[in-house]
Amino acid sequence: MADLSRIFKAYDVRGVVPDELDEEAAEAVGAAFVEVTDAAAMVMAYDMRPSSVPLAAAFARGATSRGADVVNAGLGSTDLLYYASGALGLPGVMFTASHNPARYNGMKMCRAGAVPVGADTGLTEIRDRAAELLAAGLGGVPGKGEVTRRDLLTDYAGHLKSLVDLSGIRPLKVVVDAGNGMGGYTVPPVFQGLPIELTALYFELDGTFPNHEANPLEPANLRDLQQAVVDRGADIGLAFDGDADRCWVIDENGESVSPSTITSLVAVRELARHPGATVIHNLITSQGVPEIVAEHGGVPVRTRVGHSFIKAEMARTGAVFGGEHSAHYYFRDFWFADSGMLAALHVLAALGEQDRPLSETLSPYARYAASGELNSTVSDQGAALDRVRATFSGREGVRFDELDGLTVTGSGWWFNLRPSNTEPLLRLNAEATDENMMATVRDEVLAVVRS
């Protein structure tokens, strides 16, 4: 019997198939999901991994055994599932392990309207009930539901394009690396009808990821895209992760663009449509993000790292937009859910509305030198944090806060050091007004952490 405590995480379910997550476990989770959410109907979608179809079918068996009808949207990206949940007003589940290797799979669950289900909002109860069902033996109850197939890809693509005005953009050469993930399925209908000359890299759906991992946060996975942008004289490159909910941008010179820069750009565009609105950013995005939001009349709100915190704060404040340094972008017009594809359309609109190249278009939004996220393996996370705190205590003008890990701010620089929830790691992000100052701060912190 599967040990569900190993695969239920803070925001989703994820594990190795079939060792940690098998069809029996998926069926139990499906039944538990219906019982905990009291869903009369729900929608599901799945990615291209070989294990996704049988796991989704098992989940549907569990859900229908508890009397719920299941709308099967078939292949889709995670943001297509969020669209389905919002447009149909149904709770939903997406079968994916995002950027994890092929042997993994998992589930992302939401309530109707794409409201996330996390450890504090029902996921723990679903885990515990599924464990009870596995221990007792699965069995149906009266009122068996039905499964119906519904293709939502065209509607999804149309909805995204209704949220961004692309009517006047100039012709663009665009290279997209789908990493053999779901971007290869969703990009063509979204781009259809736009003045885009598309070069497609790794659009074949293949959950074994034969070319490279579908994780654009790892620089090695961007190299093919960067080279193709330069070789083809393209205006822009876009990279999606496995479930295509994250999007990474490459400029015309083949240079990687910080998600903080994209956050600032999209925030300015959304504030032009919604003057005075709130914009959410997590605490490791660039200091330039809240500065630019405020300069354009918006209200910046800082949160912890993690989509559950972003979505909760967006709902609380009615924020129009939210961005994370992990290349997740959240939109009020998209049920407060994240969509890398929608962020990509905003970038294409900003680029295509004028004649400057992307690097010049984005230059006003890139103000500081950043380290990127650097991981250090430590035996005692708390002791390492205490050493860093002691090192910087007493320095003139230095401020501390502990919203998420330890953030230390000085004159012209800041860094955040936060522990991983699942590994013996400390994650460092540092930023400063110039490269030399950033490197000095970065190296001092790493020396203390790794001592």
TrEMBL record:
Residues 6-131, 155-254, 266-368 form the Alpha-D-phosphohexomutase alpha/beta/alpha domain. It holds the Pfam family PGM_PMM_III. InterPro entries: A-D-PHexomutase_a/b/a-I, A-D-PHexomutase_a/b/a-I/II/III, A-D-PHexomutase_a/b/a-II, A-D-PHexomutase_a/b/a-III, A-D-PHexomutase_C, A-D-PHexomutase_C_sf, Alpha-D-phosphohexomutase_SF. It comes from the Bacteria. Its cofactor is Mg(2+). GO terms for molecular function: intramolecular phosphotransferase activity; metal ion binding. GO terms for biological process: carbohydrate metabolic process. Keywords: Isomerase, Magnesium, Metal-binding, Phosphoprotein. Residues 373-446 form the Alpha-D-phosphohexomutase C-terminal domain. PANTHER family: PHOSPHOMANNOMUTASE. Belongs to the phosphohexose mutase family. This is Phosphomannomutase/phosphoglucomutase. It comes from Planotetraspora silvatica. The gene is manB.
